[in-house]
């Protein structure tokens, strides 16, 4: 049975780059990986997708056929994905793979908040499916930003009803001090609480209430630092996904 790894996160967090790096790492280690692009509006990708939703849905055609602008076309296209999902599944079934790495739309809400995403997840199967939520370090380096990302991650997991692993993307682009601070917050929530309470901002009360609510739901999980440029963390992310899906850190390559 093939695994389905959905790469999700805010626009610009590095989803496509990680998709490419993850596939390259898997192939280098003897595994079969297939990339699936679900963003009909993307103009350029750092990899050649094996399966591309743009074969069936294109933003320029949606704009022309439905008389909407670019933003409206993105919403229509997200819903059209549910209509074309059987074609997507048929295309995926033509491959024999250990992993399907699914690169989701740049605007995360187009995948996580639309009803069409449930149709896609159900059609492609839930049994060996997992989300990989990417924490953008430019947002995660403040306590409020970190908690906001935790909320978004939890929302995506709640909406799609799939298990989730969390990764710090672009870890090579931040200072060692910033990186360690973010990772400490993910490992030790009390360190995050201290950072929140020390700021004394107008939103401090709200932030601490959110912190405690998320803590009670065990929403905090240790981040896997990754870099698509250097390859750092890709093996650790793979092991984390393997543990969630199979209860083991490794597959046996063919």
Rounded to an integer in angstroms, the radius of gyration calculated over CA atoms is: 19 Å
User: What is the CATH architecture annotation?
Assistant: 3-Layer(aba) Sandwich
Tell me the helix content: 40-55%
Measured by DSSP, the beta-strand proportion falls in 5-15%
Structural class: alpha/beta
**Main pleated sheet:** 7 strands, parallel
Task: Calculate the terminal CA-CA distance, rounded to whole Å.
Answer: 14 Å
Can you tell me the CATH class? Answer: Alpha Beta
Main-sheet strand order equals 3-2-4-1-5-6-7
CATH superfamily: P-loop containing nucleotide triphosphate hydrolases
Number of domains: 1
Helix-strand topology string: EHEEHHHEHHEHHEHHHEH
Q: Let me know the number of strands.
A: 7
Kindly state the mean pLDDT as a whole number? 92
The total count of helices amounts to 12
Kindly identify the CATH topology: Rossmann fold
Low-confidence stretches: none
Q: Per the principal axes of the C-alpha atoms, what is the gross shape?
A: globular
């Amino acid at each position: 049975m093939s695994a389905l790894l959905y790469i999700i996160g805010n626009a610009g967090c590095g989803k496509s780059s990680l998709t490419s790096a993850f596939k390259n790492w898997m192939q280098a280690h003897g595994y079969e990986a297939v990339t699936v692009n679900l963003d009909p509006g993307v103009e350029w990708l750092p990899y050649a997708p094996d399966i591309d939703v743009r074969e069936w849905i294109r933003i320029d055609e949606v704009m022309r056929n439905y008389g909407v602008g670019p933003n409206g076309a993105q919403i229509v296209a997200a819903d059209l994905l549910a209509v074309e999902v059987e074609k997507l599944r048929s295309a995926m079934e033509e491959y024999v793979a250990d992993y399907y790495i699914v690169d989701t739309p740049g605007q995360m809400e187009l995948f996580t908040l639309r009803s069409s995403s449930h149709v896609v997840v159900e059609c492609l199967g839930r049994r060996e499916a997992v989300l990989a939520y990417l924490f953008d370090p430019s947002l995660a380096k403040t306590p409020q930003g970190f908690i906001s990302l935790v909320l978004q991650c939890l929302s995506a997991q709640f909406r799609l009803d799939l298990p989730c692993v969390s990764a710090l993307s672009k870890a090579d682009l931040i200072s060692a001090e910033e990186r360690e601070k973010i990772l400490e917050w993910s490992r030790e929530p009390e360190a995050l609480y201290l950072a929140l309470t020390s700021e004394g901002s107008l939103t401090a009360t709200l932030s601490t209430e959110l912190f405690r609510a998320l803590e009670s739901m065990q929403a905090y999980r240790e981040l896997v630092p990754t870099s698509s440029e250097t390859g750092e963390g890709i093996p650790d992310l793979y092991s984390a996904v393997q543990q969630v899906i199979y209860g083991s850190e490794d597959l046996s390559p063919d």
